[in-house]
Amino acid sequence: MRQPAARKRPKQKPDTAGLVERLGEPLPKPAAEASARFARWLADIRPKTAGNALSTLTRRNPGAARLLAGIAEAAPFLWDTITANPGRAMRLLLADPAEALATLIEKTKTAGAATRSQPELMRLLREVKIEAALLIALADIGGVWTLSHITEALTSVADTAVGLTVDHLLRDAVRRKKIKPSDATKPQYGSGYIVIAMGKMGARELNFSSDIDLMVFFGASAKLGADVEAAPFFIELTRDFVKILQARTSDGYVFRVDLRLRPDPSSTQIAISTAAALDYYESRGQNWERAALIKARVCAGDIAAGEQFFRELSPFIWRRYLDYAAIADVHEMKRQIHAYRGHGEIAVEGHNIKLGRGGIREIEFFVQTQQLIAGGRHAELRNRSTIATLSALAADGWIDDAARDELAAAYNFLRNVEHRLQMLADEQTHTLPATAEALDVFARFLGYRSRDDFAGVLVSHLRNVERHYIRLFERAPQLLAQRQKFSLERSERDGEIYERLTQMGFRRAPDIISAVRNWQGGVYRALRGEQARANLVDLIPVIFDQLSRAENPDAGFAAFDQFLVGLRAGGRFFSLLRQNPELIRFVALVIGAAPRLADILARHPHFIDPLVDPGFFGALPDEARLRENLELALEDAHGFESMLDAIRLFGQEHMFLVGARVISGSLSAEQAGETFARLADVLLNVVHRWVQSEFTITHGQISRGQSAVVALGRLGAREMTASSDLDLIVVYDFDQEHPQSDGRRPLHGSQYFARLTQRMISVFTVQTNYGVLYPVDMRLRPSGRSGPVATQIDGFKSYQEHEAWTWEHMALTRARVVSAAPDFAARVEAVIRDVLCRPRDAAETAGDVVDMRGAIAKEKGDANPWDLKYVAGGLIDIEFIAQYLQLVHAAHEPGILDSSTARTLEKAARLGMLAAEEAEVLRPAVRLFHDLTQILRLCLPTTFDPQAANPGILALLARAADLPDFPTLAAHLADTQRAVRASFIRILGGAP
């Protein structure tokens, strides 16, 4: 395997040498075509002074040419920044980067201190941010700075922006006589206003396009003006603080500000008194909050008051005893990583390098867990820096040198990859490109020759991290069984059993013992075999251990017991678990958090078999592999009924396996939506061809007859969930001069395709012993329920051009041909494209969209925040915005057309059709709603009620949103929905 190339530093230059003179390998390796495009761009701007200078520079310095051509090929955000002001780029390339950044920060502090106007400060900070971002990116990509230098530089820019903003607001408060400081020129001293940096900003390890995680407190030391109440004043000041940094203006933004790490964010204001915070941490603080506070530092405001606050908080963070109990809690924070032994394959395309297996979060949790365990007694472990703490752990013998070196190398590598990902579009993303082609471009941007070279290095680091993480967190079930082995035979005194179960967190020990004795007695169908009972009894200690880790162990046990009641066969299932006890963690997770999946597993326990395959958590099967596997499954099907059963089993098994990957954290919601859609595409394609073949046996063929299955809705958008309907339209054509089929029971063309469509639908919807595969919804066909189930292509075109309503064209933006002969598919797609690209009146279209949204709200309601689709500010609002943008802009810019809501918003932002501040709201919102929807549809067969929900599902939802707990998620969801509704009103011009 090719190891990562070490940076080859250029020959020693004077300390004042410019950035371009210090370039080191590996630089980007742009494709020849990209280098040619860059050369053409240079030629186009050569008449300008900056163009001449850049042309000369790149001609003399091939490294500079590769640097800029690589940016032009791979990183649109950086390239747009360069082309917007080539002179600035030239100046930064020639400057000493350290001096340039230091000068920029000092000038900013001077200018900021003299600024009295809030708009003027906002403009200043945004101009500084973009110049600093470009400078740091050039130093990073060019190999001039190390990772620590880069993250320190990014953090210094953030500290400067935060500090200037706080000082500006406090000076303004002095002018308005809201506060009375002892020194009016330095109102932050003694103000009692404390801004604390958390996460990577706190550790001075900020990434390129990071949010800044902050907490804001105010203390009793504040000297306020007459009739000024502390809480309302500091809350309003904090709102202004967030606006100055976060608001999107024509100059961009400074930093996205996240205040959700504060105590109990769902019920507290954005600024909290230090007294209330201390009371919270002392009485209700959790281990995840202790871990978060390890990296915290005071970064602005009243520094002395903040440091005093931390001194009072220290006993909460740092326990005076070895706190091994923290391991389970911290592991729960990382439940998206379920590293089953034997499942070593890691997908590359689409892998999340932060949250995915072997990623940045695992390294950070590895370090933080050891700090929580021992930091109370070993002050040398109280370090905010991940790399420095790894060294301290090794020096004190907590880890060996190999663990230190491998984790440090992986951390540096992954953080570098993280920065390059975020440079592409100035987004806080951690997900690698999803296709091999896009990943190849990205790999060359990183300086690798190809996707495969990069993948080899990546997987090596991920596996190293995963191995060390498993050693820390995963306790072998066999050893656990030996330590906790106890008998539930009646001969043992019940009091001892009760005490042991109570120590493990169970409160209903008598009921649990009674149920387990039912297991041993073979009361349940799946346990009537002697071997099944023996295997389960051997696993009882491990089962208790897994269930005891849940927030409500008794509820978890009850769910497991109910699972055994419904289990159809236990012999192979328990034997598999006994041989692979690490799967018990997954089974416990499914039973505790995903009742829908648990029901499927109880009916089909063999569905778990593929999880034992070492390749299961590797690359997802592509369409060709799925089709091959389906056709193999159908080989043994003889007759229509047998085919129905085989196709249902295949579909249900793959849906279960996709769900397993989602709840185990190895598949993102976006990937899940695409995978569910890929499965449906394959099933539709195979069924369509199979039905056509069977149909011709009776009815023959029809001259020039062709049909196309068109997907709409979630399937068309590739945003399917585990419970999605198939929204379909069938379009056909035939020779009008020879309209009869040639079989023994001939049919006229329209009747022929109507019956063929009905036969195809029945394959999916008819009830068999294995249930229904998919509900099929054809209400989006022309004329809805009153129209024929299949539509001739000319009639389809005429209806769309002359009769269809705006809402039908909105639905058509998600149309996608999933099964048809290539030539006929092209004809249908051309009709759809022509309809979508016709000119439309923007105001009239917006009015229709608003009316449609109002009608849906009236019919479905829009008040339940967990009805993520229909709630005001929910998914429908975002989808309608995306569909509106396509309808009004496709006539002059057909490039905006895309069946995916998320991709449409990305295109609209890139093409200037969606304001940056709206994109900043809508793009993360659609990801959040899709993430949560995937979990809810996967886990629950009924409506979600947070008050009655199992703690497991609450934890899964928080994890899907990458938030520490459910109350934080609830607060974030409410904020997001309010922001989306405001965007809907601004863009479409009225509230429904």
CATH class category name of the largest domain? Alpha Beta
Uncertain spans, ≥5 residues at pLDDT below 50?
1-15, 331-345, 474-486
Q: Could you say what the CATH topology of the largest domain is called?
A: Beta Polymerase, domain 2
Q: For the report, how would you describe the main beta sheet?
A: 5 strands, mixed
Computed over alpha carbons, the radius of gyration is 31 Å
By CATH, the architecture of the largest domain is named 2-Layer Sandwich
Supply the number of helical segments.
41
Q: What helical percentage do the residues reach?
A: 55-70%
| CATH superfamily descriptor of the largest domain | Beta Polymerase, domain 2
Number-wise, the strands total: 10
Distance between the termini: 58 Å
In words, what does this structure look like?
This protein has 41 helices and 10 strands. It is mainly alpha-helical. The strands form 2 sheets. Strands 1, 2, 3, 4 and 5 form a 5-stranded mixed beta sheet that branches. Strands 6, 7, 8, 9 and 10 form a 5-stranded mixed beta sheet that branches. The longest helix is centred in the last third of the chain and has 31 residues. 48% of the residues are buried. The N terminus is likely disordered.
Summarize the structure.
With about 1000 residues, this protein is mostly helical. The chain has 41 helices and ten strands. The two termini are about 60 Å apart.
